[in-house]
Amino acid sequence: MGIFNFFSKDKKEKLDKGLEKTKENVFGKLSRAVAGKSTIDELALDDIEEALITSDIGVETALKIIEKLEERVAKDKYINIAELNDFLKAEISLLMKDSYDEIPQVDGPYVIMVVGVNGVGKTTTIGKLAHQFKQQGKKVVLGAADTFRAAAVDQLVIWADRVGVEIVKQDMGSDPASVCFDTLQSAKASGADVVIIDTAGRLHNKINLMNELTKIKNVMAKVIPDAPHDVMLVLDASTGQNAIEQATQFTKATEVNSLALTKLDGTAKGGVVIGISDQFQIPVRYIGVGEGMEDLQVFNKNEFVDSLFK
Ligand SMILES: Nc1nc2c(ncn2[C@@H]2O[C@H](COP(=O)(O)OP(=O)(O)O)[C@@H](O)[C@H]2O)c(=O)[nH]1
Ligand SMILES: [Mg+2]
Ligand 1, from 124, 126, 265: best to mutate by most atoms within 8 Å of Cβ? Predict the structure, then answer.
C-alpha cells in the first residue's frame, strides 16, 4: 500500500510540474480578467471569454463554457471568484470524455496501432507504454511498421532493448502491412498479451493515409479478427491548435479509439487537452510528461482538472 501511495504522489508531482506553464497561461489570463473584482459581471464575462479563447482550449469549447457561465451568472445574479473556479472545474470535467484504467480483456493479444504525424512522440510513447505493460507482468511485442525511415526502426529497437521486450521488424522500405502481419503472427504464436505497432502516418495526402491505414487494418484482421483493438492517435500538446488540426485529419482518415497527448511538460499549451477531449469525444488515454521511460501517465480527467485548478 505504502509504495503505491509513494508512486501516486510522485505521479501527481510530475503532473503538477508539467502543467505549471499551462496554469500560468490559462489562469494568468483568467485572474487578470477578474482582477480587482469580487464578483463576476458582464464586463468580466467578456474578459473571461477572451482569456479562455486565447488559452488553447479552442474556440468551440471555450464558447460552450462561456455559455454555461452566462446561464449561471444570469441565474445567480453574481458569483464570486472562488465559485467561478469551482464552476470552471466542474464544467471542464463534464466536457471531457472519460477514460478507462485497464485495457480490456480480449481473446489473444490486444493490438494497439499507434498513428500520428512525424515527431509527435509515437515511438517514445510506445517505448514508455511497453515499459508500463511489462511492469504489469504483460508480455509485449512491438512491431516496427514505420518502415519509411531507417532511423525510425532503429529507434524502436533501442526502446525494445531498453525495456526488454520483443520486436518484429523488416528492412527499411518494406511494406508496413507485411510487418504488421509478421508481428501479429509472432505475437499470437508466442502467447503475447499486448502488441504495439509503430506506424509512419504521413499526412501529406489524406487518401494515401486512409488507404495505407485501411490496408494495414485489413491485413491485421487476417491474423486476429478484431485487430487492431485500439487505434491510438498521438498528438504533441505543445503544438496547440495544430494538434487539433491533426486530430481532425486523422479522425477523417481512420477510426481513432484513443488519444495520447505528449510533451505536456514545459508547454503553456496544455489547455488543448480540454479542447481535444471535448471536440472529438475520444478518450485521452495517456499523457507524456517527459522523455524518460517513466514519463507516461494514464490520463485521469479529474486529476488533470484538479492539478490545473490547484
Ligand atoms: N519533453 C518531452 N519530449 C517528448 C515526449 N514524448 C516524446 N518526446 C520527444 O519528442 C521527440 C520525437 O519523438 P518520437 O517518439 O521520435 O516521435 P515520432 O516521430 O512520432 O515517433 C523525441 O526527441 C522525444 O524524446 C514528452 O512527453 N515530453
Ligand atoms: Mg517514430
Answer: 124
Query: What per-residue confidence (pLDDT) applies to 1?
Result: 40
Q: What percent of the chain has pLDDT over 70?
A: 96
How much distance in Å is there from the Cα of 273 to the middle of ligand 1? 17
pLDDT at 203: 61
Ligand 1 environment, Cβ below 6 A: 116, 118-124, 155, 262-263, 265, 288-291, 295
Report how far apart, in Å, the C-alpha atoms of 117 and of each of 120, 185, 200 are.
6, 27, 7
Phi-psi group of 199: left, alpha or beta (phi > 0 → left; psi -120 to 50 → alpha; rest → beta)? beta
CA–centroid distance, residue 146 to ligand 2 (Å): 7
Ligand 2 (single-atom ion) residues, CB below 5 Å: 122-123, 152
d(CA 190, CA 186): 6
Stretches in the chain below the pLDDT threshold 70 = 1-7, 202-205
Which atom of ligand 1 has the smallest separation from the CA of 266?
1
Domains within the chain, CATH numbers bracketed? 2-95 (1.20.120.140), 110-308 (3.40.50.300)
d(CA 180, CA 176): 6
Atom of ligand 1 nearest to the CA of 119: 19
Q: Are 125 and 132 in contact (CB under 8 A)?
A: no
Q: What is the pLDDT of residues 27-56, one digit of tens each?
A: 788 878 877 777 887 788 888 898 888 888
For residues 195-231, one letter each, b for 16 or more C-beta atoms within 10 angstroms of the residue's C-beta and e for the rest, the string is bbbbbbbebeeeeebeebbeebbebbeebbeebbbbb
Asked if omega into 283 is within 30° of 0 (cis), the reply is: no
Beta strands in the chain (DSSP E): 110-115, 140-145, 166-168, 194-199, 230-236, 258-262, 284-288, 296-298
